[in-house]
Amino acid sequence: MKLVTFDTGDGVKRPGALVSDGTQIADLAAASGGAVASVLWIAEGGDSALAQAEEAAKSATGDALVAVDSVRLHAPIQPPPQMRDCLCFETHLIQAFQQARKLRAKQFDDPEAAERDMEKKGILSVPQTFYDQPIYYKANRFAVVGHEHDVIWPSYSNFMDFELEFGVYIGKPAKDVKKEDARAHIFGYTIFNDVTARDAQTAEMGGSLGPAKGKDFDTANPMGPCLVTADEFGDPYDKTMICRVNGEEWGRGSTSTMYWSFEDLVAHISASETIHSGEFLGSGTVGNGCGLEQMRFLSPGDVVELEVEGIGILRNRIVKN
Fold first, then answer.
1. pTM for this model (two decimals)
2. Are 142 and 278 part of one and the same domain?
């Protein structure tokens, strides 16, 4: 199923499922007499709740069917109970650090020599920790917004960027899960745009506590347009990922290039810690999936489209007040 959360203009978030080739939404709450309360309720309820949602989608008629273009889509689970963003793509890290070294080297009289020296000394290079274990930070779940929602440019930034990611929602709670058993805890998948204020991020990363205002501002975490349940999504490691700005393709990659799998993430994070239903784990940025890797940045009014095969397109406009 492709699950969504939507409202019809009254601000009330309702659970839905895309039907009629994605042109309509089956209002799962209306079709089930209120039994299907939310997408989170489905994630928490396991197979029986998913079956109930599927039956409601099939039986929806009349007022329980609404046109997609007549509603406002929110993130599939907004807000998620918790969200962690992980580093799973080596290519992105290599290319992003290369560009960061070029930027820093421009401050010296001989930029080429400075860049070579930094590379030799391992300055602004992929940390060994990335290869030793999955790395993640806990993102601001209250900054989550949906498809076609505006992203508001933070007042303190001059260099804004997007990051093309996808990720998983947890279904059955997980604790001390082995990698080979982890797939059973994945409920579904969605697209994630980890919008980043690059200047703020660069300034704070030296503090060794991870990103803060580089990532944390209202509307910084667009997700959607839908949640594709694991049974429909199939193999998560054979999907094409594409990013566009104002219709121009800026980059593409593949989920097949993940250094760490979602199973690795679930096994690592669940060690002596319960991961609850509805929690979101992001993949990190795919190689070629952000402007920094090409030294290109966003401008006010830009429309960013992130596409992941099997899910759809997440579209958001960057607005500067």
1. 0.95
2. yes
